[in-house]
């Protein structure tokens, strides 16, 4: 069992894929391999059942099975995505995960009118339903949810709800949001908020420079995230960005809307982390030319890294 999330949590919490067989069943043997792969590349923690984990395509029983398998396999802190249209289902999964040793749960705002009073009321209801002892991550991903919120609302929620200890920052563009949140903390009365960033890590060097504590995303080269964050934390800012730049072509390719998950799973398969690159239907499937293109980028990435 890993430590609970706090307002000082930092590092790289990798967003885990959910491996499937060609027939669409959850591949638990590959899930074991994937956890070992992430551990071997030095991640700080693991986040499961996120959007990249295809959680919305899993049955409640499968979600429980994934939680059980990962928590049994690793001593790293594990964050569980519990977003659900139904508040009762969300809270039930959250309590299940915490009882089995999760470090915290992640929740995105529900789709609907982008009114801040609606979002504020929703997160108060989530916090009450989960309980004050459950560390809560606000997933701020308006490109997916359609719900954009201001830094002021995030700060207000963080102040009013002591258990909301982390922001998963995926607003795009969103660098000014990070700066605004850190500027708030110049006031001693304002509690610090841990900020880990997503979007595949596409803007990670700039986000770290703005005050982010690390990454929470699923780039299929987790070592790029781990090493970049470590170098930046050590004060080697230019070295961190130089290293990160070597991965940019394939990272950018992996960020294609609609196709990114299939690309990412193919890379994980080619790197030996999972047995099959299938997404669960309905989901994208790469063609021969897509694969040829991607594997060329993988070869170019390896050459760039050897040159370094």
Automatic annotation (TrEMBL):
GO terms for molecular function: 4-hydroxy-tetrahydrodipicolinate synthase activity. Its EC number is 4.3.3.7. InterPro entries: Aldolase_TIM, DapA-like. The keyword Lyase applies. SUPFAM superfamilies: Aldolase. Pyruvate binds at residue 216. Keywords: Lyase. Gene3D superfamilies: Aldolase class I. GO terms for cellular component: cytosol. PANTHER family: 4-HYDROXY-2-OXOGLUTARATE ALDOLASE, MITOCHONDRIAL, DIHYDRODIPICOLINATE SYNTHASE. Belongs to the DapA family. This is 4-hydroxy-tetrahydrodipicolinate synthase. It comes from Pseudooceanicola marinus.
């Amino acid at each position: 069992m890993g430590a609970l999330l706090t307002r000082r949590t930092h590092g790289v919490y990798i967003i885990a894929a959910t491996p499937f067989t060609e027939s669409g069943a959850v591949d638990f043997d590959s899930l074991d391999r994937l956890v070992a792969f992430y551990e071997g590349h030095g991640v700080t923690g693991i986040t499961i059942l996120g959007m990249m984990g295809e959680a919305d395509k899993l049955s409640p029983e499968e979600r429980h099975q994934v939680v059980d398998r990962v928590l049994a396999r690793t001593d790293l802190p594990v964050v569980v995505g519990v977003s659900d249209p139904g508040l009762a289902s969300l809270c039930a999964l959250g309590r299940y995960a915490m009882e089995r040793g999760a470090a915290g749960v992640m929740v995105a705002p529900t789709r609907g009118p982008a009114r801040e009073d609606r979002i504020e009321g929703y997160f108060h209801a989530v916090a009450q339903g989960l309980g004050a002892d459950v560390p809560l991550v606000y997933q701020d991903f308006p490109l997916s949810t359609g719900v954009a919120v201001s830094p002021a609302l995030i700060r207000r929620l963080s102040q009013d709800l002591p258990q909301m200890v982390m922001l998963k920052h995926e607003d795009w563009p969103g660098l000014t949001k990070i700066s605004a949140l850190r500027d708030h903390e110049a006031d001693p009365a304002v509690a610090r908020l841990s900020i880990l960033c997503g979007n595949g890590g596409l803007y990670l060097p700039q986000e770290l420079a703005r005050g982010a504590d690390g990454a929470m995303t699923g780039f299929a080269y987790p070592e790029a995230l781990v090493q970049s964050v470590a170098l930046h934390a050590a004060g080697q800012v230019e070295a961190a960005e130089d290293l990160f730049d070597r991965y940019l072509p394939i990272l950018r390719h992996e960020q294609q809307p609609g196709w990114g998950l299939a690309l990412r799973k193919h890379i994980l398969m080619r790197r030996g982390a999972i047995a099959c690159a299938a997404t669960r239907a309905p989901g994208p499937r790469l063609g021969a030319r897509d694969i040829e293109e991607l594997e060329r980028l993988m070869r170019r990435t390896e050459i760039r890294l050897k040159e370094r």
